[in-house]
């Protein structure tokens, strides 16, 4: 089973993945981020995959079947199984020493406010979920 991190900005250039409008067109309002169903439709259209090869919000039991994890998107191909977690983060995302931060700037008429929020490591989380999916498939005889 393969796990890969993809650059959504490169795969989906017409979806605005930033909360700011492009600097070259300040009068335009920023586009809304795509919903998960819209993103799935785009993935299917872009890749030519069949609908039955793309799953969303897949619930996977852990090894003890005591808890379940959600994986936003699971794509089945002849090359492997790809697990993608979609995050509702808005702003600049950075990672330093396995600590992830999301920085959001809010602007008002008189001041600019910057908020930095620390997040759990999303790569570790998707790797754990992928391991649970692989184990579940093996237990099921796949």
TrEMBL record:
Species: Nothobranchius kuhntae
Domain of life per record: Eukaryota
Record-linked Pfam families: NERD (PF08378)
Organismal lineage: Eukaryota, Metazoa, Chordata, Craniata, Vertebrata
Residue ranges annotated for the NERD domain, each copy included: 52-137
Gene designation: Nfu_g_1_023057
Protein name: NERD domain-containing protein
Coiled coil regions in record: none
TM region(s), chain numbering: none
């Amino acid at each position: 089973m393969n796990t890969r991190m993809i650059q959504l900005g490169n795969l989906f250039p017409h979806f605005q993945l930033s909360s700011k409008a492009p600097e070259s067109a300040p009068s335009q309002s920023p586009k809304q981020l795509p919903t998960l169903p819209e993103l799935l439709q785009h993935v299917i259209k872009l890749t030519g995959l069949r609908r039955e090869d793309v799953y969303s919000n897949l619930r996977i039991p852990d090894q003890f079947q005591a808890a379940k994890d959600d994986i936003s998107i699971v794509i089945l191909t002849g090359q492997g199984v790809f697990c993608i977690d979609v995050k509702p983060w808005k702003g600049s995302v950075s990672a330093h020493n396995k600590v992830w931060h999301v920085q959001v700037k809010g602007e008002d008429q008189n001041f600019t406010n910057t908020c930095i929020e620390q997040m759990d490591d999303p790569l570790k989380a998707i790797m754990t979920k992928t391991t649970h999916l692989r184990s579940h498939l093996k237990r099921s005889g796949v």
